[in-house]
Design a protein that fits this description.
Blueprint: E1 2-6, H1 11-27, E2 32-36, H2 39-44, E3 52-55, E4 58-62, H3 68-76
Parallel strand pairs: 1-2
Antiparallel strand pairs: 1-3, 3-4
Helix pairs in contact: 1-3
Length: 77
Amino acid sequence: MKIQILGTGCAKCKKMTEVAEKAARDLGIDYELEKVTEIVDIMQFGVMSTPGLVIDGKVVVAGKVPTEDRMKELLSK
């Protein structure tokens, strides 16, 4: 599974990374994490507010950090 965190490195972006990594580890998912920090690259996903979460090429969250439980739901789909 490829997980991409869209954001320039703000506190919410860092929190999104922490929540995603913890949820993936707790679920035992084999994953690759990529941080997309360039505004031009973020905009190519159609995300206008960060942080954003992309799972296997699909934007699933934008503009907020999901709870750990919600993150586990998203990663389990």
